[in-house]
Specification:
The complex is a heterodimer of chains A (about 400) and B (about 140).
Chain A: H1 4-12, E1 20-21, E2 24-25, E3 27-28, H2 39-52, H3 62-81, E4 90-93, H4 96-107, E5 116-120, H5 129-138, E6 141-145, H6 155-161, E7 166-172, H7 184-193, E8 197-201, H8 213-216, E9 220-224, E10 235-239, H9 241-246, E11 257-260, E12 265-267, H10 281-297, H11 299-317, E13 323-326, E14 335-340, H12 345-354, E15 357-358, E16 360-362, H13 367-373, E17 378-382, H14 389-406
Parallel strand pairs in A: 3-15, 5-6, 5-7, 7-8, 8-9
Antiparallel strand pairs in A: 1-2, 4-10, 9-10, 11-12, 13-14, 14-17, 16-17
Chain B: H1 4-17, H2 21-33, E1 56-63, E2 66-73, H3 76-89, H4 94-99, H5 103-107, H6 116-140
Antiparallel strand pairs in B: 1-2
Helix pairs in contact in B: 1-3, 2-3, 3-6
Classes of the chains: A alpha/beta (about 400), B mainly alpha (about 140).
Bound molecules: pyridoxal-5'-phosphate (PLP).
């Protein structure tokens, strides 16, 4: 658990947190969309472009070697962080969306008509649309694992859906719209009993939880650096080795080949098979720096603090008459999605913006969840470890003020 | 009948009276609350404006050569903004609406104080009102 002074010190690591918005100190509560960047990561980016910017894996010269080493070291940092056996099981991608598309596209060669794939009812559109496209291509059938009013997946229904035709299951580790933490290990085990592979979208979990992929047993896992104090445009796909070998490459080009003639090309070994073209070298290195930064504080401490802060803010918000929180799972963290009776989320969000408070409004790329609750959207405040209890109070006061103005 | 440009001047003057944007927002909210009700029958898919994060319906009727707008939205701020647009454009001949400048939006600083999505919505609303004017204009010719 982080102490007050520790959080104050951490805040000093983030230059953006001293920005003013509309004449007031920025209160940033849109961390589930993108987290802010500490000086350690900004310095890494500056250092890369100032000292050793070069193309990697192909040069004979010094800069290229330095950049290649730093990029591969970042991969090793991620490998260790996520408890993975081999570095080549970590593929650098542009982010979670890209990672999911690599798997969905590769699966189109491995699925046939009549196969079934399962998606949870609380997915981000980027974990729905690629699979719908896959079904269109292959004739596989998409089925939905339902959830209850609290925003928890119905494991009985999930169990009933699993059968020998089930080839893949995919769901998020933490829901970006509700904050629900899904029981990954248990769900993976159930899927494996019928021989189905599991992809877990870790975009929201990786910033908040210690994730050991070997223990969780997942076949694929994804993360986006920009939600973990890293830069945008870089993320990762983890895969079990057997799956990464089986899956055909996603894009053709340089870097992903072993040998090219006009008759036939053989693909490079992992991870390069999935990293066609010049990768986001600086991004990868900065992703490594971001993970190191979070580990220097301790993800377990970060997670515990965020959970407490979220609980505190939820309790305070619920004192506002007519305020309803969507997503009340037993196991949840860092996200508070809410509406106030009779008011449109967009109005509340716009007024908060005038007060320098950044939240998100809308369907949060999870329209099926909004349809489930029959609402047009919610206001979403999402917390990070650099947010304080005073900021939670300021949010509550801001929402109260907005409600007074609107009612 | 006041000319569109005169009404726009009035609105600019009114907005200058406020000291900060919170007060302007309060004013827009009041306008939203007092926007006359639209006939429910006009809240159709056809009258729905694309490009807004909250649902917005705008309906137009021609009466004695003048175009009259009614509108509604799920969000109060959006209703307030439509109320301003209705004040400017409603009761005017179609040609005047087609020809009208919309610089006053920039002059009252509305666009920069709206979120990007809401500013897009505002542009869509103005475009839709002008399209109605063009449609009625061509019907008459
Ligand atoms: C649960 C979840 N999945 C996927 C994504 C998409 O991530 P990216 O935009 O980094 O590809 C997000 C980000 O909004 C998310 O929250």
């Amino acid at each position: 658990m982080l102490k007050k002074e520790e959080v104050e010190n951490i805040r000093a690591d983030f230059p953006i947190l001293s920005e003013q918005v509309k004449g007031q100190p920025l209160l940033y509560l849109d961390n589930a969309a993108t987290s802010q960047t500490p000086t350690a990561v900004i310095d890494t980016i500056v250092d890369y472009y100032s000292r050793y910017n070069a193309n990697i894996h192909r040069g004979v010269h010094h800069l290229s070697q330095t950049a290649t080493d730093a990029f591969e070291e970042a991969r090793a940092t991620l490998q260790e962080h996520f408890g993975v056996d081999k570095p080549h099981q970590i593929i650098f991608t542009s982010g979670t969306t890209h990672s999911i598309n690599i798997v969905a596209s590769g699966m189109s060669a491995l699925l046939k008509s009549g196969d079934e794939i399962l998606v949870s009812a609380m997915e981000h559109h980027s974990n729905i649309v690629p699979w719908q496209m896959l079904c269109e291509k292959t004739g596989a059938v998409l089925k939905v694992i339902p959830m209850n009013e609290a925003g928890e997946l119905d494991l009985k229904a999930y169990s009933a859906l699993l059968n020998e035709r089930t080839k893949m299951v995919f769901f998020n580790h933490i829901s970006n719209a509700l904050g629900t933490v899904n029981p990954v290990a248990q769900m993976v085990e159930m899927a494996h009993r019928v021989g189905a592979a599991v992809l877990v979208d870790g975009a929201q979990a990786a910033p908040h939880l210690v994730v050991n992929l070997k223990e969780l047993g997942v076949d694929f896992y994804t993360a986006s650096a920009h939600k973990m104090c890293g830069p945008t445009g870089i993320g990762m796909l983890y895969g079990k080795e057997e799956w990464l070998l089986k899956l055909p490459p996603y894009q053709g080009g340089g870097e992903m080949i072993a040998e090219v003639t006009f008759d036939k090309t053989t693909y490079a070994d992992l991870p390069h098979k999935f990293e066609a073209g010049t990768p986001n070298v600086c991004g990868g290195i900065a992703f490594g720096a971001a993970v190191k930064y979070m580990n220097s504080i301790g993800l377990d401490k970060i997670g515990a603090y965020e959970e407490e802060l979220t609980r505190y803010a939820s309790e305070k918000l619920l004192e506002i008459p007519g305020l309803k929180i969507y997503g009340t799972a037993e196991n949840k963290t860092s996200v508070i999605s809410f509406n106030v009776e009779g008011l449109h989320p967009y109005d509340i969000g716009s007024l908060l913006d005038q007060m320098g408070i950044a939240v998100r409004t809308g369907h949060h790329c999870a329209q099926p969840i909004m349809d489930f609750y029959r609402i047009p959207g919610t206001v979403r405040a999402s917390f990070s470890f650099y947010n304080t209890y005073e900021e939670a109070d300021r949010l509550v006061a801001g929402v109260q003020r907005a409600v007074n103005m609107l009612q | 009948m006041k000319a569109i440009s005169d009404i726009q001047e009035e609105i600019i003057d009114e907005f200058m009276l406020f000291e900060d944007w919170m007060q302007r927002y309060e004013y827009i909210i009041d306008l939203g609350k007092s926007l006359p009700l639209i006939d429910e029958a006009h809240k159709t898919e056809n009258n729905l404006i694309k490009g807004c994060q909250s649902k917005v319906w705008v309906h137009a009727d021609m009466e004695e050569d003048k175009l009259h707008f009614t509108a509604d939205s799920e969000a109060i701020l959006t209703k307030g903004i439509i109320a301003i647009l209705i004040r400017v454009f409603s009761g005017q001949p179609p040609q005047a609406i087609v020809d009208a400048s919309t610089d006053f939006i920039d002059q009252i600083g509305l666009k920069e104080h709206l979120s990007a999505t809401r500013a897009n919505g505002l542009v869509s609303m103005i475009k839709q009102m002008k399209l109605y004017a063009v449609a009625f204009q061509s019907q008459r010719q």
